[in-house]
From TrEMBL:
Family annotation (SUPFAM superfamilies): Clavaminate synthase-like
InterPro entries: AlkB-like, AlkB-like_sf, ALKBH3, Oxoglu/Fe-dep_dioxygenase_dom
Protein name, per record: Alkylated DNA repair dioxygenase AlkB
Domain Fe2OG dioxygenase: 99-196
Keyword Oxidoreductase attached: yes
Keywords: Dioxygenase, Oxidoreductase
Amino acid sequence: MSQVSIIDDADGAIVDYDPEFLDAGERTALLAELAQVRDRFDRDRVVMYGKTIDSPRLVCAFGDDGLHYRYAGVDRTTHPWPPRLRAARDRIAAVCGHSLNYALVNLYRTGDDYIGWHADKVSDLVPGSAIASLSLGAARPFQLRHKATGADHEVLLASGSLLIMRGTCQQFYKHALPRRRGVTEPRFNVTFRHVRAV
Ligand SMILES: O=C(O)CCC(=O)C(=O)O
Ligand SMILES: [Fe+2]
């Protein structure tokens, strides 16, 4: 595990990045497994400022039985873990130092798909738990911005890379994956989370 520190600030926000968490064989196998469940992906209908908006990307959730994780008015059913995704989850949980029971997977079909500036909702997560983000497919730039100072960070998320956000990251920073014209290859992003049992 060769982690690079992206953020480690006085407020306790921590972001670490490992560009080569998965080797080439694991990347190919996991991409193939996600491609097999491609028909389970659909757009989120997100309620924002009283309006219903279809997300500019496709989404699918996997997790342990009976879990719910709500965000922006979406309460999505979780599918059972495909075996390779569960194996990746186990390895990533060992890196985080706690269990991970939920994975939200975004599919950016081309560079036109994106996710806007936001912080992840942490009230349904186990306090102090990390959010671990595994990328597969097209490399896309990921941006982090401090909510008060506007300080910017950008990381090109490579296929097979792992980015871990922990500490007060969601409290002090927003993040986004902007549009990138000219990207024709799809990208899957899996964010593993430790959702609180309700
Ligand atoms: O695709 C990414 O790298 C980020 C996804 C994300 O921020 C989210 O699902 O909350
Ligand atoms: Fe996010």
